[in-house]
Amino acid sequence: MLDDEMFHIAIVDMTGYDCNVWDLCHKLKEKRIPTLIISSGNSKIKRKCYDHGACSVFYKPVAIKELTDCIKGLVLKK
């Protein structure tokens, strides 16, 4: 997936993922693609997300304004 496409930002919803999600996050980090994680998790998951390259972590339910502000900020940085 990541080899054939060009992404400016990635939003990963962790719901239903297994441990392969960390491989995806690592690949995104290697390609320097800013990654936002959406999770229903807890502070342990949040720390792990940051350890694997996430720029921001949002908990469900996600506040749309907060998410769009974060996306705008990351896009403007590029």
How many whole angstroms does the radius of gyration measure? 12 Å
Shape: globular
Low-pLDDT sequence parts: none
Q: Name the structural class.
A: alpha/beta
Tally of contiguous helical segments: 3
- What about the largest sheet? 3 strands, parallel
Average predicted local confidence, pLDDT: 86
Helix content bin: 40-55%
| Strand ordering within the main sheet | 1-2-3
Can you write the helix and strand succession as a string? EHEHEH
N→C terminal distance: 22 Å
How many strands appear in the DSSP assignment?
3
* Percent of residues in β-strands: 15-25%
SSE order and pairing:
Elements: E1 10-13, H1 20-30, E2 35-39, H2 43-51, E3 54-59, H3 64-77
Parallel strand pairs: 1-2, 2-3
In short:
This protein is α/β, with parallel strands linked by helices. 44% of the residues lie in helices and 19% in strands.
